Amino acid sequence: MPNERFRIVGGTRLHGEVHVSGAKNSVLKLMAATLLAQGKTTITNVPDIADVGIMAELLTRLGCTVSRDADTITIDVPEIPGHRADYDLVRKMRASINVLGPLVARLGEAEIALPGGDAIGSRGLDFHFKGLESLGATAHNQHGYVIATAPNGLKGAEITLDFPSVGATENLLTAAVLAKGTTIIDNAAREPDIVDLGEFLISMGANIQGLGTPTLTIVGVPKLNPTTHRTIPDRIVTGTWAFAAAMTKGDITIHGGRASDLEVPLEKLASAGAIITSTADGIRVRMESRPQAIDIATLPYPGFPTDLQPMVISLNAIAQGNAIVTENVFEGRFMFVNELVRLGAQISVDGHHASIHGIEQLSGAPVAATDIRAGAGLVLAGLVSDGVTLVEDCFHIDRGYPQFIEQLRNLGAEVTREIGD
Ligand code: UD1
């Protein structure tokens, strides 16, 4: 497939309306969790992104029948699904690992390819494996796969995570719902995606207390039933539009965006000078002057999301003043900073701190997206650069932002997709 890129001519104030669809980081986990119940589960508000297709392919290979109609996906799970997730899919999409918990819980066995490293750091899976072992499974690596087995079923246990990992909380939650007895997960992640998954599981018949708090209590049930569920809106896409409005001195009404999932980022944007108001079905973000620099430190929810860190660095690159951005969640997440420097940004990185000296105007240049969020951060920077910015490897961005180019154009941006060299 030819490598595509975005071509951005900077300088437009974004103005108008956008619609936010379902959260990527929620829907993929909901799809994986359908494996917990035999029969047809329906998920609505499904975003039109490549990763949904990859998860659908993975579920199909496990014997499910997956059908899609507009933003609704139906997954028919057989009585005994397959138990192996192959490397070709797992390497394309890390969230494939989310089938581990449901398969071990339902079948007592799973073989999942190890995803390996990626562009935002080493991303271990030790909490997933240790937690499953506490629940009575054995897990070992063989030929690039983790082989997890629990021939006599899982048993409730007390698990304390060393860090509130989103993926580990999800895998352990989806394993514990069918375990015998009570499981307590302490230091659990509290992201809205976890709450969405928990509510989905409850609608299947699971018994879960404490969603949205650091302690989850799960009383196992013998069987879950198929359900119908609407995916929550994507808070990272919402946040990206909010930063886009602030950076371009624009005015964007974000339909479907939930301010309650973004309290810290919106407070930070307000301190940068943005005017943020609630609307009937979302939020409106306006900016009239050059943003003020904002210091942030990424943290697990409800802290500032690491997935919006590239956007905050881009904003600071053109802000009035100096800022320090501290990355506490992923070690490799400043890699894209070198790309921003190509646009003239004044940034120096020392360990997990980036110091940014805001300048009035960035200068367009070719840059490359290294992951979804870094790519979106570079697009925002391109919008406020003079001349042309080419964002290469835009397939990364397509993984997380449905209809990105179209929505940007509706807001007045001069952006096109073109074939790269
Ligand atoms: C999910 C999101 C990602 C987001 C991240 C943090 C999806 C598909 N991805 O990723 O967009 O940036 O949450 O909000 O939902 N860790 C370990 N051992 C483990 C598990 C995690 O050391 O067993 C470390 C990771 O290396 C990382 C940190 O914990 O440094 C957080 O990772 P985690 O919360 O698990 O992120 P993901 O679920 O991979």
UniProtKB/TrEMBL annotation:
It is found in: Cytoplasm. Its EC number is 2.5.1.7. InterPro entries: Enolpyruvate_Tfrase_dom (IPR001986), Enolpyruvate_Tfrase_sf (IPR036968), MurA_subfamily (IPR050068), RNA3'P_cycl/enolpyr_Trfase_a/b (IPR013792), UDP_GlcNAc_COvinyl_MurA (IPR005750). GO terms for cellular component: cytoplasm. Residues 10-408 form the Enolpyruvate transferase domain. One of its GO terms (biological process) is regulation of cell shape. Pathway: Cell wall biogenesis; peptidoglycan biosynthesis. It is an enzyme of class 2 (transferase). Its main location: cytoplasm. It catalyses: phosphoenolpyruvate + UDP-N-acetyl-alpha-D-glucosamine = UDP-N-acetyl-3-O-(1-carboxyvinyl)-alpha-D-glucosamine + phosphate. One of its GO terms (molecular function) is UDP-N-acetylglucosamine 1-carboxyvinyltransferase activity. Pfam families: EPSP_synthase. Keywords: Cell cycle, Cell division, Cell shape, Cell wall biogenesis/degradation, Cytoplasm, Peptidoglycan synthesis, Transferase. Belongs to the EPSP synthase family. MurA subfamily. This is UDP-N-acetylglucosamine 1-carboxyvinyltransferase. It comes from freshwater metagenome.
